[in-house]
Design goal:
Helices cover 31% and strands 18% of the residues. By secondary structure, it is an alpha/beta fold.
Length: 326
Amino acid sequence: MTRLLRPDAGGIAEAAGLLRGGGLVAFATETVYGLGADARQGRAVAAVFAAKGRPHFNPLICHFSQAEAAFAEVQASAVAVRLAEQFWPGPLTMVLRRGANSRVDLLAGAGLDTLAVRVPAHAVARALIAAAGEAIAAPSANRSGGVSPTAAAHVMADLGGRIAAVLDCGPSSLGIESTVLDMSGERPRLLRPGGLPVEAIEAAIGVVGRGIIPAQAGAARGLRSPGLLVSHYAPRLPVRLGAVDAEKNEALLAFGAHPPPARLVWNLSERGDVTEAAARLFAGLRWLDAAALELGLAGIAVMAVPMDGLGLAINDRLARAAAPTS
């Protein structure tokens, strides 16, 4: 049975004890809810893959309460330190070479010579990580390939009975996963757009390269980042992008004022605000998917979202949600 814990001192202490004992605990970050395990315990990390049904070649992000703890596990460059000083805590994940003395289990990094590390900007998450002893591997707390969770209820619906506990901190404020930057080579590369706009990164360190695109990622078996599989963040119903209207048998994921009529509508942002849209994206996909299935609808039509700011991350997730599952 999965326990629902309050985000107070007692709940944090209980959740930390479960993690230290090798259990799995879901917890909120500013991006989405993560499924946490002690990254130094191989059996616990393996249990994450089992609970999610996640391919073992897909690496996990290791979360830390402070930059110093994260950099103790990796080889941090001067540029990485500069980014950490400016954007940590926050929705930035950096992929760096594993340190010679790293104690993170190899499975957490999918056997690669790199680790993905982050310091979340959520006070309860950082308190939990510190109490559990740092290095908490935490992918999104949902079944692999499905829509990421932004509330405790989403986690319970996907993983209830499969994990020890959920630390319920209410809805995630940002609502979309972290930006992932590969810092392991000569030039930083954007692997996954996310909650930190790439424009902010480039303002700090200059132009960054672009990494694996969705069409290439499905064939890769040495992925340096989570979230690179072609079909990902997917509801059960098929998704049609670039819609200007909805067919009679479709629900509508809308953006902006005065959307076209549909039997079911979830508007990401009536004001046309991409930040608001990011926060409402995964909850909207989940609600439309469940409600449309109940009504016997056959798909979800998605209106266009601008590419500026967090729009790049939104469009990345929508493209993967719409990708074929086989």
